[in-house]
Amino acid sequence: MDRTTQHYLAALDRAKLDAESRIAHLEAEGRQDEADLEKIRRNVLAHFAKLAQQDALKGQKDGAAGFAHVHAPRFEEMAEPWRQRQQKAAAHGDVVAQTIEETKLKTLRQIWTLYQQTEVRE
Amino acid sequence: MNEIQTVQLFKCLADATRLQLLSALGDGPKYVELLSQLLDRSPSTVSFHLKKLEEAGLVEAKKEQYYTMYRLNRSLLDAPIGRLVLGDPKKLDAQAVKEQQYRESVLKNLFEYGKLKNIPVQRKKRRIVLEKLAESFEKGVRYPEKQVNLILADFHDDFCTLRREMVAEGIMAREKGEYWLREDTDA
Fold first, then answer.
1. Could you read off the pLDDT of B157-173 as tens digits, one per residue?
2. Does A29 sit within 8 Å of B15, measured CB to CB?
3. Helix and strand tally (H, E) in chain A?
4. Buried (b) or exposed (e) across A47-66, using 16+ Cβ within 10 A?
């Protein structure tokens, strides 16, 4: 596995650990619903980390470029159904569902930033 | 307030952020952005909690010019806790509570924003759905088939199946192209 991909996977792992510690903190403060939203964030990060590992294997013979070719389209693929659900929830004034979908989309944007930062740094 | 509502009320209260929101609303109505600043939470988190408080009947929302203002529902918050916990009033028996919870979960799973996602195959679930749809009809009113179709089409494209099922399940009666809710059903 090339260095760029390794750094990106490590950054995803760190973000996941940060989310875990925020969950513990929110639960300790008795803010269960916000802890549940943070769990959604953690799950998106965990899911994306798994996908990234699979994509790293698929694209490994072409190095970082091979990984980018397989991995970059994942962001839009994943965002589209969430965006649709978020818009539908907003149209029906369903604040709870809207917040959940926004949390997923926001996490995806954060992962995209991590991905780009890793690429630029390398 | 029945047992289920009381449980929902206390579940809603069992959250530190929501308690802080109620406290912040204690000295008067406020809008989301202000509450967001006071509690140092994002506006979307505040909206999320306010929605839950509103659903539990603890706060009321009112649109005023550019903002939606949130205020405490004093009639509920000023009630002595003993009245909610001990007072009995409409205590449901355990079986009725279970039934109601099952009914609510079936409706929650099968309806999305007022639309029926699919017509359930299981008879018990189908019956619950049909009883829900029957709430769109008035007792004592006779509806021509076309109007029944129009009302049911708001819920699902296959309104013909729904219409036939309403009759088959004994929720509606039919005669000479007219439909009406049967008097002997709870629907």
1. 999 999 999 999 999 99
2. no
3. 4, 0
4. ebbebbeebbeebeeeebeb
Element (H, E) at B61: strand B59-64
Q: Are B91 and B72 in contact (CB under 8 A)?
A: no
Residue whose structure tokens are 């009630």? B79
Q: Cβ B17–A31 below 8 Å, yes or no? A: yes
CA A40/CA A59 separation, integer angstroms: 28
CB contact under 8 A, B48 and A31: no
B7-32 pLDDT, tens digit per residue, is 889 999 999 999 999 999 999 999 99
ipTM greater than 0.90: no
pLDDT at res. B185: 61
Query: Which residue range(s) make up the domain with A80?
Result: 3-121
Which sign does the torsion angle of CA A76, A78, A81, A87 carry? negative
Number of domain units in chain A: 1
Q: Residue B71: how many CA atoms within 13 Å on its side-chain side? A: 10
H-run or E-run covering A16: helix A3-28
- pLDDT tier for residue A13 given thresholds of 50, 70 and 90: very high
Q: Coil, helix or strand for B173? A: strand
pLDDT over 80 (residue B2): no
Helix axes A32-58, A95-121, angle to 10 degrees: 40
Minimum Cα–Cα distance from A96: chain B residue:
B48
pLDDT in tens, A73-102: 999 999 999 999 999 999 998 999 999 999
Q: Is B75 on the interface with A (CB under 8 A)?
A: no
Which fold would CATH assign to domain B3-77? Arc Repressor Mutant, subunit A (1.10.10)
Residue B60's nearest CA partner among B48, B50, B49 is: B50
Domain layout of chain B by residue ranges: 3-77, 115-181
